[in-house]
Amino acid sequence: MLDINELDSLPSWAERLKKASLPVYIYGMGDGCEKLLRAFEQEKIVCSGIFVSDGFKRDKVFHGFRLMSMSELERTGRQFAAACAFGTDLPEVMERIDALAKRHLLVFPETAVIGSEFFSKQKLLSRADDIIKVYELLEDRASRSVFVNILKFRITGDISYLSEYSEPDEVYRLLDIGSDEVYADLGAYNGDTVESFLRFTGGRYRHIYAVEPSRRNFSKCVKKCLPLDNITLINAAVSDRDGTAVFSDGAGRQQTLSANGIQAAIRSLDSILGDTECTFIKYDVEGEDIPALLGSRKVIESCCPKLRTGIYHRPYDILDIPLLLHEMQPKYKLYMRRPRYYPAWDLELIARI
Question: CATH class for domain 4-126?
Answer without folding.
Answer: alpha beta
